[in-house]
Write a structure and sequence with these properties.
The protein is mainly alpha-helical. The protein folds into two domains: 53 residues, no CATH class; 69 residues. 53% of the residues lie in helices and 3% in strands. It has a two-stranded antiparallel ribbon with strand order 1-2. Strand 1 and strand 2 form a beta hairpin. Helix 4 runs parallel beside helix 6. It is elongated.
């Protein structure tokens, strides 16, 4: 999801207090996200939230909502991972070919597009069914 106007304003206000010119601000953002940022509008909604948190606290947000309890909802989690592979939500990891991209899943769970806005560790049975239905639709959209 795209960054909101309110988030852009918050970022601009916070960064203006650091007395950085436009080029310095963009360089700061590029360094922070390890990719080239040419405008604040290049950020996603979730990236903007994390940046605002970092700028206000000086700490990176460690809240990965994709962490799960290994002993609960095993079959649902396996099905979710299957959908992640089918939707190509994977990342390369040293020693493995591809693994599910839990950072992307975490960002999805935090976004307005998620049917359930809470960490996987707090999911109940009905939450899993909503999330799995959403991923069925994502997979369908991937292969249209």
């Amino acid at each position: 999801m795209e960054i909101s106007k309110k988030q852009i304003q918050q970022i601009q206000i916070i960064l203006s207090k650091r007395e950085l010119d436009r080029e310095e601000r963009l360089q700061f953002l590029s360094d922070h996200f390890n990719r080239e940022i040419t405008t604040t509008k290049d950020l996603t909604f979730v990236e903007a939230e994390d940046l605002i948190y970092f700028l206000n606290t000086g700490k990176k947000s460690n809240s990965n909502w994709a962490f799960f309890d290994k002993s609960k909802f095993v079959s649902e989690r396996k099905l979710l991972f299957s959908y992640l592979y089918q939707a190509q939500w994977v990342t390369k990891k040293e020693g493995y070919t591809e693994v599910p991209d839990l950072e992307r899943l975490s960002n999805f769970l935090k976004s307005p597009k998620s049917p359930v806005k809470k960490p996987l560790k707090k999911f109940e049975k009905q939450d899993w069914s909503k999330l799995l239905q959403a991923f069925r639709n994502i997979v369908k959209g991937t292969y249209k």
